[in-house]
Write a structure and sequence with these properties.
By secondary structure, the chain is an alpha/beta fold. The chain is 37% helix and 25% strand. A three-stranded parallel β-sheet has the order 1-2-3, covered by helices on one side.
């Protein structure tokens, strides 16, 4: 499986495994979208990972 130049959606990407996956996948050149319920945590994650795209939702 190719892990470069993909668009990837991660639910619960503001902490833990989701955050780590997001950061590693961005480093590989992917477009990463994370979702979460907490808008503040999403904004904090966006500050740490400027390339990430955020969507507030309850999946």
């Amino acid at each position: 499986m190719h892990l470069e130049n993909n668009t990837i959606l991660i639910t619960g990407g503001t902490s833990g495994f989701g955050f780590e996956f997001a950061s590693k996948l961005i480093a590989l050149g992917n477009t990463v979208i994370i979702t979460g319920r907490n808008a503040q945590k999403l904004q904090e994650t966006k500050q740490k990972l400027p390339a990430v795209h955020i969507i507030q939702s309850d999946v």
